[in-house]
Design goal:
The chain is α/β, with parallel strands linked by helices. Helix content is about 45%, strand content about 15%. Helix 1 (about 10-25) packs across helix 15 (about 365-375).
Length: about 400
């Protein structure tokens, strides 16, 4: 069985698809994969590290770029021709896409070749690209029932956010989302890994793979107030790391052991950071919908102000469920310190938020999407494993 994957531009489109690939390998070890992405996006190196065949397609965004949309449209047309040839050679049984302009050409090529298409919607509200491409898809996987309304009746199915195996393992689950009984053990491993002090609340702060300057600046200003009450794992991003390190160098000697600064954490270490944390401050990208609930993590979410409206939608959902607080980016310098300190000093409130977050966790999401993809790839079910038995259902 051959499965084609397309997604890219940001990690928000790549990580969920990679999680589904891992689950597919567990459900159907003989499956073969090929990834179609953008020529200049971050997905190429990421897919190479996973050992998957990768084909780079020309193109570019078509919305919000002014006159650049004209040459980009021509590049996308060229990409459709190339993708059509690749599909003809690879002969996939199904295509999984996660949205963004890199998925346009593979979707059209597979539709022309009559290859069934499944869309995974990372956020709660579809972008313009997803809305346009949904007309070519047979199935759409979404994170929660509220997103069903954006698609035609019967087309979409609720699966949850697919989590990569390192995250599932750190949260106490196997790659198919079944409990391993190791959550507490991994929590202790994580705290030792980061050399955290016992009995002190741990605050995790990060702004995505490249960091977030406003978050970094607000946190540095709040460190003198926060560190007497908590220890902090701060992932600054590569761009600001040197400046953040310089700004934090003047901390009093007694507080320095409680501040743990990193430019970037790779997948396994990031999973351990989530496992070690008692409270998290971050942007509100799609991964927050899956990762924070699976770790039962109370959150302070700061939507990126230039990311259309989807991060605000994500933050408002978790806040509305009692699992998070939302702060606006322009208010960070004034509100981050007091908001974080209030939660750090109120374990009962954090416990209520953790319970609300945990109720939203869906550890078997990647396996559910994999099962939907397998059903599209082989509607007759010939020689396929029973996904229900694999999921413990």
């Amino acid at each position: 069985m051959h499965i084609l994957i397309s997604g890219g531009g940001t990690g928000g489109g790549v990580y969920p698809a990679l999680a589904v690939v891992k689950a597919l390998k567990a459900l159907h070890p003989a499956a073969e994969f090929r990834w179609l992405g953008s020529r200049y996006g971050i997905e190429g190196p990421m897919i190479a590290r996973e050992g998957l065949p990768f084909d780079a397609l020309p193109g570019g965004p078509l919305v919000g770029v002014g006159l650049r949309a004209i040459p980009n449209a021509l590049r996308v047309l060229a990409a459709v021709v190339r993708a059509y040839r690749i599909v003809g050679h690879f002969r996939p049984s199904a295509l999984l896409i996660t949205g963004g302009w890199p998925t346009i050409a593979p979707t059209l090529a597979c539709w022309l070749r009559r290859v069934p298409i499944l869309i995974y919607l990372p956020d709660r509200e579809p972008s313009g690209a997803i809305r346009a491409l949904a007309r070519f898809a047979r199935r759409v996987a979404v994170n929660d029932a509220d997103s069903l309304r954006y698609f035609r009746p019967g087309q979409a199915v609720v699966t949850g956010y697919p989590l990569r195996p390192s995250v599932l393992e750190a949260a106490g689950y196997d790659p198919l989302g079944q409990p391993t009984g190791r959550r507490d053990a991994v929590h202790e491993i994580a705290r030792r890994h980061f050399r955290l002090q016992p009995g002190v609340p741990t605050l995790l702060v990060f702004g995505g793979s490249r960091g977030a300057r406003s978050l970094n600046t607000a946190l540095i200003a709040a460190l003198p107030d926060l560190l007497p009450a908590a220890q902090i794992i701060h992932i600054s991003g590569e761009l600001d790391h040197a400046q953040v390190a310089a700004d934090s160098a003047g901390l009093p000697a007694e507080l320095r052991p409680r501040y743990h600064l990193f430019a970037y954490l790779h997948s396994e270490d990031m999973a351990l950071a989530l496992a070690a944390a008692d409270l998290v401050v971050s942007r509100a990208g799609a991964s927050t919908l899956g990762e924070f609930p699976i770790f039962r993590l109370p959150a302070i979410l700061v939507p990126y102000p230039h990311a259309w409206r989807y991060q605000k939608t994500n933050a408002d959902f978790l806040a509305g469920q009692g699992a998070a607080l939302r702060l606006n980016d322009e208010d960070l310098s004034r509100e981050l310190g007091p908001s974080a300190l209030s939660l750090i000093n109120d374990p009962a409130r954090r416990a209520r938020m953790a319970e609300a977050a945990g109720a939203l966790g869906q550890p078997a999401a990647a396996a559910r999407i994999a099962a939907e993809l397998l059903a599209l790839a082989d509607p007759a079910g010939a020689a396929l494993p029973d996904p229900g038995s694999a999921l413990g259902e």
